[in-house]
Amino acid sequence: MSEPAPALHWTHEGQARSARWHSESRAAPPRRVVEALDNSFSADAAYRLACEGTALLWCGDFQNARQLLQALARRVERRPRKAPAPAASPAEAFHLHRQAQAQRARVLAMLLIPLQADYGIALRRAPDVRAACTEAYGPAGAEGFVVSLRELLGLVGAHEWRKKGVEIAALGARIHPHYGVFSPVRGEYVQLVADAPLPSQALAFDIGVGTGVLSAVLARRGVQRVLATDQDPRALACARENLARLGLGERVQVLEADLFPEGRAPLVVCNPPWVPARPSSPIEHAVYDEGSRMLRGFLGGLAAHLAPGGEGWLILSDLAEHLGLRTRDELLGWIEAAGLTVKGRLDARPQHPKAADASDPLHAARAAEVTSLWRLAAR
């Protein structure tokens, strides 16, 4: 029996009200909620309430709510009058950055929007978000609920990304990411898979398929059969849709599995999350992997799933090493303990804008980052 949905409680003209609460990050509903109309609060007053943990349930003009959210974001991002003490280490800088991100997310999540049962918004100048909500939440239910405006705008942005798609040079085609599935905007890791010498074109496993981009690259390179796995229902649906759109649905079979499918293959590919830290939302599972669970699981099971003479391709950034969250010796130790040897490695420098952004608090680590395709074999 499923647990009842959490509820949000507030008062309207002296009467107790409640509604279902939904949060993709699984945040608990705010304990204190006040209704807010246009000009009910100044941006400074709204910011103080949000910092204190009081949520604003918006009942006015939708576009005014968007403007207030922008005003709250500007206040969150104001530099303190006194510069903070420099971090003692890259790891401390990373943890302080994550704390600041979490605090920003908590404050901005305090502006709430009610959704009707069909995902409509009964506010003036509200956009039609029903398609975006259906893609993210699934078919509409029997009752409405309340979400943060920040989450709702994220759904709308993901809906636009899904329609437009991301151009993948190695494919000469677009990949269309679904909400909650990490977009392949960093082309260097895709290009590494496109360039590495194939040990075989008979069969490949793609562990953690995501959008399906690496399976598509392998199939386009001539691999006759690809078995792709993932545990996330959104990723499974996204990969199947992308591969069908590219005409590769018959050559790539997408399976729900924790890491490996049954059997062995001459090529096993995995692009695990790169940073060993706790994810705070579903989309972050593609970047953060607490305790390097997926990385260590892939390495630990790889030898048992490689055909004789086969290769495992581990696509991994060394950002965690530059942040002091994992050492190269640890990685090499896990490879050796798994009964694997390194046959070779292809490296690529990142091309994303943050690598050149000197104002980014993690700039030094990002500027030094290298993404590698490790060619591994069983000893």
Automatic annotation (TrEMBL):
<keyword id="KW-0489">Methyltransferase</keyword>
<dbReference type="GO" id="GO:0032259">
    <property type="term" value="P:methylation"/>
</dbReference>
<keyword id="KW-0949">S-adenosyl-L-methionine</keyword>
<dbReference type="GO" id="GO:0036009">
    <property type="term" value="F:protein-glutamine N-methyltransferase activity"/>
</dbReference>
<dbReference type="InterPro" id="IPR007848">
    <property type="entry name" value="Small_mtfrase_dom"/>
</dbReference>
<dbReference type="GO" id="GO:0003676">
    <property type="term" value="F:nucleic acid binding"/>
</dbReference>
<protein>
    <submittedName>
        <fullName>Class I SAM-dependent methyltransferase</fullName>
    </submittedName>
</protein>
<keyword id="KW-0808">Transferase</keyword>
<dbReference type="InterPro" id="IPR050320">
    <property type="entry name" value="N5-glutamine_MTase"/>
</dbReference>
<dbReference type="InterPro" id="IPR029063">
    <property type="entry name" value="SAM-dependent_MTases_sf"/>
</dbReference>
<feature type="region of interest" description="Disordered">
    <location>
        <begin position="1"/>
        <end position="29"/>
    </location>
</feature>
<dbReference type="InterPro" id="IPR002052">
    <property type="entry name" value="DNA_methylase_N6_adenine_CS"/>
</dbReference>
<feature type="compositionally biased region" description="Basic and acidic residues">
    <location>
        <begin position="10"/>
        <end position="25"/>
    </location>
</feature>
<feature type="domain" description="Methyltransferase small">
    <location>
        <begin position="201"/>
        <end position="278"/>
    </location>
</feature>
<dbReference type="Pfam" id="PF05175">
    <property type="entry name" value="MTS"/>
</dbReference>
